[in-house]
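Morning - aspartic acid inputs below, output right after.
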Amino acid sequence: MPRIALHWQILAALGLGVLAGALTGPRTAWLGVPLVEVYAFAGTLFLNALKMLIVPLIMASIVTGVAGLGRSEALGRLGMRTLVYYLTTSLLAILTGLVLVDLVQPGLAGGHPVRDLLGLARLPESRLERIAGHGAGDLVEIFLRMVPTNIVQAAAQGQMLGLIFFSLLFGFFLTRIEPPQRETLDRFWQGVFQVMMRMTDIVLRFAPLGVFGLVAKTVATTGFGAFAPLMRFFLTVVAALAVHFLVTLPLLLRLVGRVSPWRHYRAMLPALLTAFSTASSSATLPVTMECVEKKAGVSNRTTSFVLPLGATVNMDGTALYECVAALFIAQAYGVELGPAQQFIVVLTALLTSIGVAGIPAASLVAITIILGAVGLPAEAIGLILAVDRLLDMMRTSVNVFSDSCGAVIIGRLEGERGILEA
Ligand code: ASP
C-alpha cells in the first residue's frame, strides 16, 4: 500500500478532530470514560513529546550553528540579516493589523463603543485622563530575562530567551578554545543535534494522532457558540493575519528570496498544521526545522541559526494580534488613542512579541503589558478570552511560517543553491 504523505495524514486528523469534538461535546462518555479525556490524553502525550525535545534541540542547534559559522564576520552578517528580517516582518505585520483595526473598528457598533453590549464596567473619568501620559516601563523585563541568573532554571521554566543567549555565547566561545577540546566539544554537540533530529522523526510519526486529540479536545470544550458577540474582532484579526500570510510574506519570498511561494507553502504544510493544532511555536520547532531543511532544502548552517532564534524571537502573528487586541479593547472602552499612543502600542507590540514565549496563549500576558502601557485596565483581557484559542492557533501558524520564510530568504541571500528547487 502506498504511504500517505504525512501532511495529508495530519490534515485528515485535523478534520476528523473537528468533527469528533463537535459531535461529542464536553460530556459524552464511552464505557464510563469521558471522551474529552481520551482526546486530551492523546494530545497531551504528543505535546509532551515535542516539548521534551525543545531544550536539547535549541541548545544543540544554536551551538553547532554558531560554532559552524566560525569566523566572526560570517556570524555578524548572518546575525544582522536575521535581525533585519525579523524586525521588518514583525513591523509589517503590526502595521497591517493597525490599518485594519482602524478601518473596521470592531470595538464600535453603530458608532458606539461595544462596552455596554459586552458588559464592561465604565472607566472613571480620572482614569481616562491618566491614559494620556503613560510610558512603557515593563519592557525592561524582557532584557532582564535575556540574561538569566540560572540557566537550568530558565530552561525548566521554558524561558527560551535566556537559553538562546547562553547557547549563542557558548557556540561563539567554543570556536575560540584550543583545538583538541574544541574538536571534542564540536563533535559532541553535532552528535546531540543528529540524535535530536532522529527523535523528532519518530515523534512526528505520531503527529496525526496528537493533532486529532488536540483539536477534538479544543472543539469539544470550547465549541463554536462562544464567539458570536466577538465576531467582528475575530474577523479583523483573521483578515489581517491572512494579508500577512497570503500577501506580504509570499511577496518577500518572491521579490527578495526569488523563490516560488507556492512551493514553500507545500514544503511547510506539516509544520503549519502542527503549529495550528499545538498553538505553540516552540513545540513546533522540531517540525519546522525538519521541513525547512529536508523539504525546502535550506542548509543546516542557516536553519540551525535562524529557526531556533525565530521560534522565540520572531512572532509576526503574535505582534499583529497584540496590536489589534489592544486597540479593540481601547475602542470597546470608548477610549480614543491618538497617534502618539498608537505608536506606543506598535512599539510595545514589537518588543513584547520578541519576549513572548512560544507557548499557547502567551500573547495574553503581552497584551496586559500593552494595556498597562497606554493605561487601560488589565482585566479587559477577559473580553477576548472566548476567541483566543482559535486565534492562537492561527497566529502561531503565521509565526512559524514567517520563521521559515526567513530561513529561505536568508539562505538565498547567503548564496545557497538548491532551495525549493525540487
Ligand atoms: N502561541 C503563540 C506561539 O507559540 C504565542 C502567542 O501568540 O500566544 O507562537
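Note: The longest strand covers residues 29-30.

O.
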